[in-house]
Design goal:
Elements lengths: L2 H15 L5 E3 L6 E7 L7 H9 L1 H7 L4 E7 L11 E5 L5 E6 L5 H11 L2 E3 L9
Parallel strand pairs: 2-3
Antiparallel strand pairs: 1-6, 2-4, 4-5
Helix pairs in contact: 1-3, 2-4
Subcellular location: Mitochondrion
Pfam family, one: L51_S25_CI-B8
Keywords: Mitochondrion, Ribonucleoprotein, Ribosomal protein
Amino acid sequence: MSRVVRQLKFLNKISSTTIKPQILLNPESYGALNLTFQWQNHNGHMGARKFWHEYLPTLQFYNPELKINISRVKNDKKDVMVPCKLEILSPTGSVVETLDMRDKDKESIMDELLAKVNHERVSSKEIVKV
């Protein structure tokens, strides 16, 4: 597969084939998302990592003004608990909601985010396909 074909496939995954995060957030209500999770996948952090890889690119694509801050904590000690959370921030920087992502899969995290934020679906006419 050529590099161009791989890039087109990747762009389509971000813009058109990953459906759940195809939403529009009001920039007057939400300023940023902060994700904090462990570098490694143990202690229930795999869902947060998958959410970051699979859903956040599409969310960012349709909400380019939304800041997304990722904090992946490197931890050499397996017994120390690293937070696994998603914070929704207002435009002023105050925390509006906090979601616990520990031991949840990417779909559950996205469903919980959709339940917490005021959003609208991207219309089918606005879906970008290259």
